[in-house]
Amino acid sequence: MTQCPNLARTLTRWLSGGCLLLLPLLGSAAVEPDTTGSAQITPPNIIVILADDLGYGDIGSFGSETIDTPRIDEMAEQGLKLPQFYAAAPVCTPSRAGLLTGRYSARMGIEHVFMYDAHDGMDSSEITIAEQLQKAGYDTGMVGKWHLGHLDRYMPWNQGFEEFYGVPFSNDMANFFFYENQKIIHEPIDQRYLTKRYTEKALDYIERHQKAPFFLYLAHSMPHVPLYVSPEFEGKSEGGLYGDVVEELDWSTGEVMDKLAELDLLDNTLVIFTSDNGPWLGMGDHAGTAGPLRDGKGSAFEGGQRVPTVAHWPARIAPGSVQNSVASFVDLMPTFSALAGVELPTDRAIDGEDITHLLTSEVEREEQRFFYMSAGSAEVTGYRDGDWKIKLPRKGYPVLIEPILKMDRYSHGLLLFNLKDDPYEQNNLVDEHPERVAAMQQIIADLETNIAAEKPRQRYMRGTRSDKKGYGPLLVKGGLLAMVLLGLVLGAFYGVYRLIRRLFKSKSVGA
Question: What is the pTM of this model?
């Protein structure tokens, strides 16, 4: 049974190879980057490098002055910088779900982060980038952090990835072990070498799959806390331990680019570097920075979901390109599908769109729209339309506590910002634009109605509490036994006390 997909992929690659043999008869290949956005004959290799909790201002090309990231900055100089690119959610599980499926997490019933004891996961009926690209004969591999459910039926090998080497969830959770495909490696993980280990596995994957189109999803565990860095990077950065960790990620990215160049794959490989959400500001000096943006991880303000993103693809992207159109994780699955010549599923809503033209030209997107997801519920909490952004009211703790916790959990009313004039989201314009507010609220309501029509099952993000109803008789007996044991212990102590007093009294009388 498992040989059939492999046979299909083999035939697909054979047919693709036959088409390539006809290229000399059809015309010469383009030497300069093709920035027209037109379809190309040879599908590119695709690599997504995903950092964890990296802030908008944590790399040089996005404004960092304390952390050196020359290799990522080089990608931006030789490729494309996307200053208005968004993660699909402000925390990792729903963000990763959106990246892989092209769908907002609310459609999947995913509200927050799957904990280590969760028995649930992203439903296996969801169609991922890997499953899409397999249809075009791609090899598909993943290295790093999964975090979409750790039970077998939710793991990468059941979501289109032929190879997996990594961990099931965040590095701060219990039962943290490596998986090599479907085998658990029952050895403690030395996190100092986590980034290096992922890098070695990624390079090995590229080496072994250089002959066929491949998709590699390299999802780093860092710089999520706890922070660890290999000895050769420790103490090197002006940004402290956090900076050390990010600079090792930059080294890792450079190793991937160097391997592609060594194998003559760099020209036709699309590499995207990005982050799953903003920085975890509550972690103090173990957190990054969102630069000029407001707030960070867990927040529907810009610092929570706008992430540093660069794309590199010499065959199609002109050096030094900048694309200021609004785009996001949910656009990646449709884009990669289009590049591979695979049609999108028609039996479900796909929220993203093919943005090949944004990557390969300076043409701007016609509709600059983005929906912000909640960090704690399957709800839409904000909406961006062009320069305008609305953020729905929320209830939480008093605003005075926010400077301490930095988690965007404080109460506020309805907010409206013009991000062009006010990128820091300081000036609430709700009262000045009531008609715009009403229209944007209606668009959010329409999306939530559309999502509700799919009747998504709410996912259990952690293990449910046990029901102790009916344990009354056992608890009574246990309580009585505990009282008896406590009485015996107290009686023993009292007996020892009386004995000691009697001994001291007899000695004093004898003296």
Answer: 0.86
